[in-house]
Amino acid sequence: MTKLESFSDLELQQLLINDDYRAFTILYGRYSASIHQFLLKILKSAELTEDIVQEVFIKIWVNRKLLAQIKTFRAYLFISARNRALDSLKAAFRSDVAMSEVIHHFVAHRSTTEDDLLTREYLNFLNSILNSLPERSREIFSLCKEQGKSYEEVAGILGISRNAVKNHMVYSMKILRSSVEKELGISLSILFAIIFKA
C-alpha cells in the first residue's frame, strides 16, 4: 500500500480538488465496485450500469473543483450515481405509469447502508429548504405531505380556508421544485417517492 492509499476520503478529496490524478484513481478504486453493485440493483443492466459508473466518475473528475463544497465524498458519490440512474430510467420510461412502477420497485427493494445514508442526505436537503420557508407554510407542508392530511383537514385544524392551505402548498412546492431540480438534478416527484414511500 502506498502512503496515498492510506489517506482518508477527505484527504484524497482535497488532493483531487487540487488536480491530483493519483488521488482520483485511488478514490475510483475504493468505490467503483460498490457503486457498480449499487447501480446494478437499480438498473438491472450490466452494460448500462458500467456506462453510468464511468459517467459518474468522469463527472467527479471534470467537476472536481466543486468538491470543495462537499462534506462527505462517499455520500456525494452515491447520490450522484443514484441521480444519474434515475435520469436514465426517466429517459427510458417516459410515461408516468411506467416511471411510477420503476420508482415503486426501486423504493421497495432498498435496504443497504448506502440507501439509508442517501435517504438521510435527501431528508437533510429537504429540511434545509423547508426551514427557509415561512413558519405557516412549513406547518401546512408537514400536515399535508408528512402526515398525509387533505387540504380540508388542514384547514379545519388550523382554522383557515382551504384556499389558504392550497396557496401555501403551491408556494412551498414551487420553491421545493426549483431547489430540488437545480441542486439534485431530479424531479420533486422522484424525491418525494424516495422519502415518503420509504
Share of β-strand residues: under 5%
CATH topology of the largest domain: Rna Polymerase Sigma Factor, Chain: A
CATH architecture of the largest domain: Orthogonal Bundle
Low-confidence runs: none
Number of helices: 10
Alpha-carbon Rg, integer: 19 Å
Tell me the number of structural domains.
2
First-to-last CA distance: 40 Å
Q: Give helix % range.
A: over 70%
Question: What's the order of the H and E elements?
Answer: HHHHHHHHHH
CATH superfamily of the largest domain: RNA polymerase sigma factor, region 2, helix turn helix motif
**What class do helices, strands and sheet pairing give?**
mainly alpha
What is the number of E strands?
0
Instruction: Please identify the top-level CATH class of the largest domain.
Output: Mainly Alpha
Shape, per Cα inertia axes: elongated
Provide mean pLDDT, rounded: 82
- Biggest sheet details: none
Structure write-up:
It is a single chain. With 198 residues, the protein is an all-alpha fold. The protein folds into two domains: 1-92, Rna Polymerase Sigma Factor, Chain: A (Orthogonal Bundle); 111-198, Arc Repressor Mutant, subunit A (Orthogonal Bundle). 76% of the residues lie in helices and 0% in strands. It has ten helices and no strands. The chain has helices at 9-17, 21-43, 46-62, 73-92, 96-108, 113-130, 135-146, 151-158, 162-183, 188-196. The longest helix has 23 residues, at 21-43. The chain is elongated, with a radius of gyration of 19 Å. 25% of the residues are buried. The model has no long low-confidence stretch (mean pLDDT 82).
